[in-house]
Amino acid sequence: MRSICVFCGSNFGAGEVYSDAARAMGGRIAARGVRLVYGGAKAGLMGVVADAALEGGGEVVGIIPRALVEREIAHPGLTDLRIVESMHERKALMADLSDGFVALPGGAGTMEELFEVWTWGQLGYHRKPVGLLNAAGYFDRLLAFFDHQMAERFMRPAHRDMIVADSDPDRLLDRFDAYVAPTVTKWIGRDER
Ligand code: AMP
């Protein structure tokens, strides 16, 4: 893993625990000599993760749509800030520049980004790991819903298992290093057991 993309909230969340987790993630990415790729904003946990990686001496690339430069406040201190014309361009460039994707606690924007890279992986568009930093159990109910989707046969176990969830940043990144993408197709036959 030379480059990791982090998706996370443009808000801070309700407790210091979320900022602590974002700080730990950014710090560990930098300490492992990995480049951080993220949405380029200073707002919320996005700013926290970027600041922690920069403080740890890491390289940080931010990618932000022009229309959000002022609203999300583009981070002025990044190694490289790329301003793009659309959200689609942002996500495509973040995906191209990264070897794996981690979602930290966040809102609808974070979920949208997570689901897009996961579904691209399911379809075989890429073979990169996708994970969740499950800080303070924030994603427990989402993970339980994924289990429900699998139990109800809308998702294969191999595709459910693509999501690497861990509360510890280093363990999560170790599991990324060991990740092997599934090779099964997305579609489950009616009579398949
Ligand atoms: P949120 O988790 O809602 O705080 O948003 C986190 C990040 O996701 C912010 O940088 C948002 O600009 C971004 N975002 C919001 N909506 C979308 C979207 N449709 N596609 C990609 N990113 C988005």
Provide an overview of this structure:
The chain has 193 residues and is an alpha/beta fold. It has one domain (3-176): Rossmann fold, CATH 3.40.50. The protein contains eight helices and seven strands; from the N terminus they run E-H-E-H-E-H-E-H-E-H-E-H-H-E-H. The chain has helices at residues 16-31, 44-55, 69-73, 87-96, 108-122, 140-151, 157-160, 169-177; strands at 3-7, 35-38, 60-65, 80-84, 100-103, 130-133, 163-166. The longest helix is centred in the first third of the chain and has 16 residues, at 16-31. The N and C termini lie far apart (35 Å). 38% of the residues are buried. It binds adenosine monophosphate. Adenosine monophosphate (AMP) binds next to helix 4 and helix 5.
Summarize the structure.
The chain has 193 residues and is of the alpha/beta class. It is built from eight helices and seven strands, in the order E-H-E-H-E-H-E-H-E-H-E-H-H-E-H.
